[in-house]
Amino acid sequence: MGHLTQRTLVTPRERLRDQVAHHLRAALISGELRPGEVYSAPVLAEDFGISATPVREAMLDLAREGLVEPVRNKGFRVTEVNESDLDQYTEIRTLIEVPMIGRITRSASRAQLERLRPVADEIVRAAREHDLIGYLEADRQFHLSLLALGGNDRLVETVGDLRKRSRLYGLTALDERGRLIPSAQEHIELLDLMMVGDAEGAEQCMTRHLGHVRSLWARGTKE
Fold first, then answer.
1. What distance in Å separates the CA atoms of residue 39 and residue 41, rounded to the nearest whole number?
2. What angle do CA 167, 171, 172 make, to 5 degrees?
3. What is the pLDDT of residues 41-86, one digit of tens each?
4. What is the mean pLDDT of the segment spanning 149-165?
């Protein structure tokens, strides 16, 4: 399971389930857990070096998110996302995020936006250093933290769920072809536009970014 065996998990029970779920989501997004494959909780637990119970609980959490589905007496199958699903997820994200970015550009302070600068820089660093998990974590933090400035918690939860379901397939292949870096740099471009109050430019950048990511992922799964 690669990076799963290298992760250090905290011991308190209330945190362990959440941490296992987090690492499993990262493995799903990076493609380490493959669509259509069935994985058992005991085998995954062995990779983590823990008991099967918190892994099974974490997998049930992922099942409620639509990322996996239970297979009787075998484990959990990673759900497959087709091109139509990805197109629909991207369309919904565009309808939500683009106008929200314009609104936040007009309302957020420069100090609020500047606090996201280290996260945007971290996305670029991770892309350059082929740190896929770091890339995914920083990318998620940037987008959701930026949207949180709009003050609508339910909107942030909705976008977070859409991101989980789309899972950004083909990430490893994109990294190998050097395509992650241009996508990563778009976060800095977006932040710069928002910092100078260019709401229209920020909306255009977000539209381009979401479309860029979607097209890259589609090519990454086919080549």
1. 7
2. 140
3. 999 999 989 999 999 999 999 998 888 999 999 999 998 877 888 8
4. 92
Find out whether 144 and 164 touch, Cβ atoms under 8 Å.
no
Q: Which residues contact 222 (CB under 8 A, 6 or more apart)?
A: none
d(CA 122, CA 137): 10
Q: What is the pTM of this model?
A: 0.76
| Token pair recorded at residue 75 | 């484990």
215 three-class SS: helix
Q: Is 68 exposed, middle or buried (0-12, 13-18, 19+ CB in 10 A)?
A: buried
User: Phi then psi for 52, rounded to 5 degrees?
Assistant: -75, -25
What's phi and psi for 69, nearest 5 deg?
A: -135, 140
Reference 169, options 22, 27, 31; nearest CA is: 31
State both tokens at 7.
């992760």
